Amino acid sequence: MALVRLSQIHFNFQTAAQPLFEDLNLTIAPGECHLIHGYTGCGKSTLLKLLLGILERPWEGEREIAEGATLGVVMQDPNVQLLRQTLGAEVAFALENLGVASNEMLLQVRSALRRVGLYISLDTPIASLSLGQRYRLMIAAQLVLEPDLLLLDEPWAQLDDQGVAELSAVLNQLKQQGVALLIVEHHRGVFKDLVTHRWQLSQGKLHGVAPAQAEASPSQECWRESPAWPQGEAVIDSHGFTLAFHERQKLFDAESLLLFPGEIAALVGDNGCGKSTLLKSLAGIQADIDPLGIKVFGKKPKLGRFGADLALLHQRPSRQLFENTVIEEIQFSLRRFGLPLEWAIELLGQLGLTTLARHSPHTLSYGQQHLIALASLACFRPKLLLLDDPFAGLDEHFTSKIVALLLELSRQGTAIVVASHRPIAELPIDRLWRVADARLECFGMATACEKQAYSRVG
Amino acid sequence: MWARRGGRAPIICRPKRHFVINDVRWCALALLLVLGLSSGAFLLPQTWLHYLALINLLLLVQGRYLGGRLKGLLVIFTSQLAITSLLYLLLHGVERLPEGITAVCRILMAMIPGWWLSIACSPQRIGEVLSHCLPHKWTFVLAACFGILPYLGQETREIYQMQVMRGANIRLKSLWRPRHWHELIYCVLYPLLIQLLKLSKQMATAARLRQFGRHPKPTHWPF
Questions:
Q1: N or C: which end of chain A has fewer CB within 10 A?
Q2: Which CDD domains match (chain A) (predicted)?
Q3: Which residues of A touch B9 (CB under 8 A)?
Q4: Number of folded domains in chain B?
Q5: Residues 6+ apart with CB under 8 A from A150
Q6: Do domains A4-208 and A236-455 have the same CATH topology?
Q7: The complex's ipTM?
Q8: Per-residue pLDDT tens digits for A387-440
Q9: Which residues of B touch A304 (CB under 8 A)?
Q10: With an 8 Å Cβ cutoff, are A98 and B211 in contact?
């Protein structure tokens, strides 16, 4: 018996030339696990909204839910779904809304947390949980409603490998208990042991994908074949440091850190290991850490000290967009730094985004906004470009555009640091900075033994 | 309340914020105290301000001990002091400067009790108290507002840093010139407003998907 059935769904956004869904069909039964993948902006998250019944725009077709069936969801960023400050209160939120008596809540909350493997004090502040734990907490917050179908929006992209392993174990258990699962992801090779049905969402339809066609998830670093040999003064120079917050546990120790013009370094480590903190420290904007002794361009980093020489792309970079048109957004920094405005037009051409020049950046898709935010930094050709998880939530198309842009900047002499929780197979690198077990280790292509050491570790 | 610890422990240990007032009656009393103290900061005659300052000092010490951060209060106080003193100097001269300083101190003393309350009481417990006199939806919104204040501060800081690094003339030394003020509004407040709108919509959806608004008389998590 089907839990959920979508039949002949038609939907399109007013501004879009092509319909997002055209004659889309999907049937989900208890205990099944469906994986839907597709390119950025193909409608994966919109499909989840349609299933949940919260799609605000009109659509055509039939959506049937089995009588009494309950749906739960964990959104792309679990942080925006967290409404309370402590573990127990978060899980109990749904019970409060159902009017469950206070004395009956404790048992149900404990049971839900046990099902997701979170054996932590109920008054633990959510702020102290890792992203993987928050993800499982969100699942527990859904489990108190006893959902028949659980929808997950891009968990693989958000979590590191250990987080994915923890989540997989929980999902496997739920599947065995008869809970149906629907996961949307960019990569088709993820959650191999869990998935029973694979779909590709393209041209408005779901196309079945055979398990054999599912590619392995990329997880190996890619070394540059003709590395940029160290030239000139080091851009980043440190003879060892400890990254630690004031009066708090240290994040990691590092022996030395070197980066030269034109080099690309990958900063890889699990969620919460301190990658973003290190990038912010290099930019001089991390306030609550002990002095590091790292020199950037031979000086101690400080906000605004390096002007157009240093740029940092934060996570969720669309936050920085504020201008009325894409071209104004990109030209903003060129005006402030007194650089030629033609560089913006050149860059848009290079990225194949010239047609978007007069569009508002706020009306663009997630991937396009991401690219525009990066372009607004790349346009002034900084000597050091720091990127915090620049490929998060992007498909192969946008990833390849960003990789091409980074390689071009590298050829022009920009030193680049890219932080991510797993190696980026598409981006050739010269240095690997790997954070594991509270230690940052540096590897370079030049010393083969270093690479071998890394392969032994990884 | 404790059980076997499983899974991966977080690598970053943030200071634990203790919501020490967990009983609904004590929370109601704390709310009344905060209302009284904040109102007193504006209404009490100057001769009583020393006593009020002493009580606020105690709240500051306890709030700091519980893991609260003083930096935000300090930044607001110093910036208000600088602007108000400058305005008093320009408009009234040196002789009325103490009046300006007193006004800024009163504003600070009106803020400290609220700061302390956000550390000592959990937002959901405040929401529970308020639900006795306000509709449930309003109390949820108020509690959510308390809850996202730290996030809001972090988001403001990050957007400000992003724009400074993009060359915006919004650093402190630039903001001495009023012609740069509009850039602060345009580059920082405008994107921040967009983020807040997005966040409020996402939070509303998250609450709705977890049955918010279904039951006429929702209950409350007792711990």
A1: N
A2: ABC_cobalt_CbiO_domain1 (cd03225)
A3: 130
A4: 2
A5: A71, A72, A73, A74, A139, A142, A171, A174, A179, A180, A181, A182
A6: yes
A7: 0.85
A8: 998 988 788 888 899 999 999 999 999 999 999 988 888 899 999 999 998 899
A9: 164-165, 171
A10: yes
